[in-house]
TrEMBL record, chain A:
Organism: Trichoderma ghanense
Domain PRELI/MSF1: 1-216
Protein name listed in UniProt: Protein UPS1
Alphabetized PROSITE patterns for the sequence: PRELI_MSF1
TrEMBL record, chain B:
Organism: Trichoderma ghanense
Keyword vocabulary terms for this entry: Disulfide bond
The family this protein is said to belong to: Belongs to the TRIAP1/MDM35 family.
InterPro entries, alphabetized: MDM35_apoptosis
Domain of life: Eukaryota
PANTHER family: TP53-REGULATED INHIBITOR OF APOPTOSIS 1
Name used for this protein in its record: Mitochondrial distribution and morphology protein 35
């Protein structure tokens, strides 16, 4: 089963600034306090297609787990990863910017825990179609999130991530019903994620305000000062 | 700037990020320059450092699996409807 949630939103900032805020949104908890759960961010590829001049970027973020605690309660520790220090998810983020056509498409998905739950978030930012909205410097975004639990399903010939823990799984899923458990996980996750989507928009808005006030050089300078303070404190 | 998942790569990652953001905001977004050649050396240095960390943490395998899943999904979604 798959659960999908989709929303539309308008930022009152021009499209190029919104794309910049997207790249900056996890730069620092000072810049975006709503990103305090992001432990690290790395770029693994970045290139401009010479024909289309589209910018392709791939990043990996490590986030403190966003799986709702209720999901953990449903699962034995052998599946959920056990103690809290291990409850971090690697997120693969891919994005394409076309500055000439005025759109940016992004996709984020979790890399671990995929046997329990896959969450795929897609965002499509674009210059609005109406001339009035363009004149108001607005940017439209459509976001969709897809939840899919494959707990107990065969994935590439293996049974989810629960394979190592032989013994309990057939009985566990047999008793409660694999489809039932999958649906519970999907719905718990979607309730929590919809909460978090508004926080992630708040974070984007904060970064956008800071860009409006200080420009990118101002923001970079603030980040540099913050690093120096951190280095001095060590 | 946020940290790299490999602390030993933090320094070069920050230099690359700063280079990228400057190039992106001052050149790419203004349509001035198509390629970010000015950041290429820093990027290569950064990837050399990061590549080791991705291997030791098994993230390279997770990436391969994600690509496999994508292929499976493509097959599933483009398959003729029964």
């Amino acid at each position: 089963m798959v659960l999908t949630h989709s929303t539309n939103h308008t930022y009152s900032h021009p499209f190029p600034t919104v794309t910049l805020a997207y790249f900056l949104r996890y730069s620092s908890p000072q810049l975006n306090p709503f990103a305090a759960h992001v432990l690290s961010t790395d770029t693994i590829s970045s290139h401009v297609d010479p024909e289309t001049q589209r910018l392709y970027t791939t990043r990996i973020h490590l986030k403190k787990s966003r799986m709702p605690s209720a999901v953990y309660k449903l699962l034995p520790a052998s599946v959920s990863g056990g103690n809290s220090s291990e409850k971090a998810s690697y997120i693969l983020e891919t994005s394409v910017v076309d500055i000439k056509e005025g759109w940016m498409k992004t996709e984020s998905r979790n890399l671990n825990f995929t046997g329990v739950l896959s969450v795929v978030e897609k965002q499509h930012f674009k210059v609005p179609s109406s001339a009035e909205a363009v004149a108001r410097n607005e940017t439209d975004v459509n976001s969709s999130v897809m939840f899919r639990s494959r707990l107990g399903d065969k994935i590439r010939g293996k049974i989810g991530q629960a394979q190592e823990s032989s013994g309990w799984l057939p009985g566990f899923l047999g008793g409660l019903g694999a489809k039932g458990i999958q649906r519970s996980i999907e719905s718990l996750a979607s309730t929590k994620t919809i909460d978090q989507l508004s926080k992630s928009r708040d974070g984007m808005r904060l970064v956008l305000e800071r860009l409006r006030n200080g420009g990118v050089i101002g923001v970079l300078e603030k980040l540099r000062q913050e690093r120096q303070r951190q280095a001095a404190a060590l | 700037m946020s940290a790299s998942l490999a602390p030993e790569c933090n320094e070069v990652k920050e230099r690359y990020d700063t280079c990228f953001l400057k190039w992106y905001s001052e050149k790419y977004l203004r349509g001035a320059e198509k390629d970010n050649k000015e950041c290429a050396d820093l990027f290569n240095e950064y990837q050399k450092c990061l590549g080791v960390a991705l291997k030791t943490r098994g993230i390279d395998k997770l990436l391969d699996e994600a690509r496999e899943d994508n292929k499976e999904n493509d097959v599933r979604l483009t398959a003729p409807k029964k």
